[in-house]
Every structure is written in C-alpha cells, then in structure tokens.
Write the structure tokens for this entry.
Amino acid sequence: MEEGSSSNENDYSRRRRRVEGMKVVVGMVVLQVATAGMTILCKISVDRGMSLRVLIAYRYIFGAALLCPLAFFLERGTLKENLYIASVKMGSATLAVAISNLLPAFTFILAVLFRLEKLQIRSRASQAKVIGTFVGIGGAALLTFCKGARLQLWSIHAHLLRRHAGSPKRAT
C-alpha cells in the first residue's frame, strides 16, 4: 500500500516540475505572439495613414491602461521607492546612486554572514567576490566623501522668447 502512495507522490512531483518548467516557455511564447501581433497592427495602422505620433501615443495609452491595474494590485509595496525619492531630496543624487550600487556588496556580505554563500578564499571566484565588494564599498565611499568641482551643465535661466543683445535683428 505504501509503495502505491509513494508512486503517486513521485508522479505528482514529476508533473509539478514539468508544469513549473513549462511556465517559462509558455511565457516566452505569449510574449513573442503579443510582440508579433503588436508589430502587425502597427504596420497595418501606418499603411492605412495613421500618423506615427498618434500611433505612439495610442501605444503608450493602451500600455498604461493594461499595466496600471496590474501595478496597483501587484506592486503595493512601494515603500522602497518613496524612501529612495526622499533620500534623493534630503541628500544628493551622488549619494543615492552610490548607495544603490552597494546592494550587491551588501547582499554578498549578508549571504556570507548567514552562511548562504561559502567563502573559499583560495578559489578565484571567492577572491573576485571579495575584491569586488571592497572596490564597490571603496568607490561608494569615494563618491560620498570626496566632493569635486561643481559642474553646471546647462543654465536653468533660459529666456526662449527674448533675444540676446548681440543677436542680429530680423528684417521686417
């Protein structure tokens, strides 16, 4: 009797693994079919005279209409985004980028501490991970603590309708 139940469990686990493996394949096929369908619809629309700008606007509108409900129900945990924007407001963009680039280093350190990652100092892979962690932390510290010259790439005070004093006048 026990052999029959273990056989059923093995069949169930095999079927479950097969279904799990097929999810990725089905997802890729659905994505390719949707992309091909969208491309065909765009080609038909342009051939019938639709403006390219209108077509792009429609694509964005329909994409937003499809994705916004999904994002609302599936991405409720947006605390990290709010904290990130608050950190940019209170600090600097350099600090925010430096800290976000440290995520792999922190992940590696936590994985070693919780023994999810084995640190074998003689292997090249472990040496590369340790060196990468130190370089990442050192680079973030360098970006954060060292302040260079302030760069002003463009001027915010642009007067688009006023002419400069040295510009030639138009003939009327």
In short: The chain has a mean pLDDT of 79. The radius of gyration is 28 Å. The first helix runs from residue 2 to 47.
